[in-house]
């Protein structure tokens, strides 16, 4: 493709439809006998989205490969029986919700970091975090697999901007040439995800102790981390199209 940027200034690939062969990648992935994990949170009113998200993810996310879905929720009793593909497994993990809606995003990184250390590192090779209030409409395959993967935010992305490798909003001058990433879809190897979530949770805690919060909550901390630790693979906005703010 010549209409979009397919390589970052630090030579990481940017995945767009038409830039890869899924058949070739599937064959390589199957030889490695890997397991991928998906983490999502459904607390307070977001339990309403569970059935739609799980049905679409079960159908489209790494179809035909082993996937463990880890659903964190404060209302496990409201989850109806969900029919999973034979290669997929659903683990419902009860959590408590905070009094404010901001509490869930703020604590999400710490929760994931803790569970990577105590459980996930023994069960999966790669781990991805997705928001629950979406439905997948097309296949997301093993083209997303890499050590540290981020999705370019769609609300500030156009073909013209992509060609310029746009700067993250509010970034300092040394951030020029980098992208702004959505916190709704990111992931990587278990080891890389542990370092990312640990660093971001520490940043959130430091903000809380100092009496203020980042403008975009944990997404701001995610982008700060990825500014200092460049992703090894970027997913185009095709993978998570957000409504305009």
Automatic annotation (TrEMBL):
InterPro entries: Glyco_trans_6 (IPR005076), Nucleotide-diphossugar_trans (IPR029044). Keywords: Glycosyltransferase, Manganese, Metal-binding, Transferase. This is BGAT1 transferase. Its cofactor is Mn(2+). PANTHER family: GLOBOSIDE ALPHA-1,3-N-ACETYLGALACTOSAMINYLTRANSFERASE 1, GLYCOSYLTRANSFERASE-RELATED. Belongs to the glycosyltransferase 6 family. The keyword Manganese applies. The keyword Cell division does not apply. It is a single-pass type II membrane protein. GO terms for cellular component: Golgi apparatus; membrane; vesicle. GO terms for biological process: carbohydrate metabolic process. It comes from the Eukaryota. The gene is Abo. Its main location: membrane. One of its GO terms (molecular function) is hexosyltransferase activity. It is found in: Membrane. Binds 1 Mn(2+) ion per subunit.
């Amino acid at each position: 493709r010549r209409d979009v940027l397919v390589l970052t200034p630090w030579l990481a690939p940017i995945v767009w439809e038409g830039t890869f062969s899924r058949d070739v990648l599937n064959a390589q992935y199957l030889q490695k006998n890997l397991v991928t994990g998906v983490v999502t949170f459904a607390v307070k009113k977001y339990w309403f989205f569970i059935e739609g998200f799980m049905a679409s993810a079960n159908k489209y996310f790494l179809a035909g490969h082993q996937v463990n879905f880890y659903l964190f929720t404060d209302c496990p009793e409201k989850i109806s029986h969900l029919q999973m593909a034979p290669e997929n497994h659903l683990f419902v993990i009860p959590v408590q919700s905070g009094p404010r809606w901001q509490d869930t995003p703020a604590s999400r990184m710490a929760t994931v970091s803790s569970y990577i250390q105590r459980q996930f590192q023994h069960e999966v090779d790669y781990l991805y975090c997705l928001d629950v209030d979406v439905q997948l409409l097309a296949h997301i395959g093993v083209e997303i697999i890499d050590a540290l993967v981020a999705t370019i935010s769609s609300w500030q992305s156009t073909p013209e901007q992509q060609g310029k490798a746009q700067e993250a909003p509010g970034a300092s001058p040394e951030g020029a040439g980098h992208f702004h990433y959505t916190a709704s879809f990111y992931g990587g190897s278990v080891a890389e995800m542990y370092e990312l979530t640990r660093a971001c949770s520490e940043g959130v805690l430091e903000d809380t102790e100092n009496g203020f919060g980042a403008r975009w909550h944990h997404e701001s901390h995610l982008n700060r981390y990825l500014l200092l630790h460049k992703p090894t693979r970027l997913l185009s906005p095709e993978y998570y199209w957000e409504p305009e703010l």
